[in-house]
Amino acid sequence: MTIAEIINQAKTLSIQERKELVKQLVDILEVEPTIAEHAEDAPTAEPWGKRLVRILEQTELADWGDPQIEDPVEAVEAVRRQEQARLDAYWSSDQ
Predict the structure, then answer these.
(1) How far, in Å, CA of 68 to CA of 76, rounded?
(2) Cα 51–chain centre separation
(3) Cα 48 to Cα 52: distance, rounded to the nearest angstrom
């Protein structure tokens, strides 16, 4: 059924029936977006920790740095050294 057909049928209703129809339509609009917006936030059977681990396992870790470095402090220092070396080229060209 098209919207035009629904409107034509609504025109045959009494004023009171039209008011009731409009009220029900507004109620539908108030409920549906709330459900749709929060559908992804709905609790699942899977705990959030397991979900996080699954997402991390699917993520490409090559972008996270050198996989050979296991110590987090050393890994951060290596990233800082790489960034400093990259930025040094800009600083040295200005002088």
Answers:
(1) 13
(2) 15
(3) 6
On the 0-12 / 13-18 / 19+ scale of CB atoms within 10 A, 69 is middle
Please give the structure tokens belonging to residue 74: 């050393």
| Dist CA 87 CA 56 (whole Å) | 30
Q: How far apart are CA 20 and CA 81, in angstroms?
A: 69
30-to-37, 40, 51 alpha-carbon distances in Å: 12, 18, 31
Q: Are 86 and 92 in contact (CB under 8 A)?
A: no
45-95 pLDDT, tens digit per residue, is 788 888 888 887 877 666 666 778 788 888 889 889 989 999 998 887 655
E strand or H helix at 10: helix 3-11
Rg of the chain over Cα atoms, rounded to whole angstroms, equals 29
Give the single-character DSSP code of 70. -
Write down the pTM of the prediction.
Answer: 0.33
And the tokens for 42?
A: 């709905």
